[in-house]
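Input record, target 12 of the design panel.
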């Protein structure tokens, strides 16, 4: 309010603003804040961000898709693996072609097993993967994941095992929910 960033919320009283933010953001604070300050639906914000990245750098957009696809299934991507998937020669090439265009979109996470990439928020991965037509629900998503996993040969052994373990955990949880 103080910075004139409420857009359509401006005309509502405080209680109604809170209810609107809560109901439209599904309880996600990031979603609520982005919608309130940009005056757009969360899906529109994420797709606009993706289209902007794609316009500037197809390699960066491809990396954004892959990071989101893997994270959609609770899988972090090892640094070396993402460099390979993004068709970059090395980390320097990756930083030039991808990271400079996805600053604060693709973030690095350090674990005791190594360094991994993920999108900045789980909800962003869900929106992107659920919205892009090339990632239709079901079989197409898993095929894209399987094709990417075939390229893991050059990845550090510990990181490869961790990534495969993430995938195994996801598949096990799916199997347990099947009738």
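The sequence produced for target 12 reads:
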């Amino acid at each position: 309010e103080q910075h004139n960033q409420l857009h359509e919320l401006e005309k509502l009283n405080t209680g109604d603003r809170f209810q609107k933010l809560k109901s439209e953001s599904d309880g996600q604070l990031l979603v609520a804040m982005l919608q309130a300050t940009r005056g757009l639906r969360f899906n529109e914000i994420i797709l606009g961000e993706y289209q902007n990245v794609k316009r500037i750098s197809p390699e960066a957009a491809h990396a954004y898709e892959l990071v989101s696809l893997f994270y959609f299934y609770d899988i972090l991507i090892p640094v070396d693996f993402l460099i390979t998937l993004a068709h970059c020669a090395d980390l320097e090439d990756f930083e030039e072609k991808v990271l400079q265009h996805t600053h604060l979109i693709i973030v690095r996470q350090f674990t005791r097993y190594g360094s991994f990439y993920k999108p900045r928020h789980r909800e962003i991965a869900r929106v992107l993967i659920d919205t892009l037509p090339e990632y239709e629900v079901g079989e197409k998503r898993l095929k894209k994941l399987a094709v990417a996993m075939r390229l893991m040969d050059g990845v550090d052994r510990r990181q490869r095992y961790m990534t495969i373990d993430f995938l195994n955990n996801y598949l096990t949880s799916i199997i347990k929910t099947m009738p």
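The mean pLDDT is 77.
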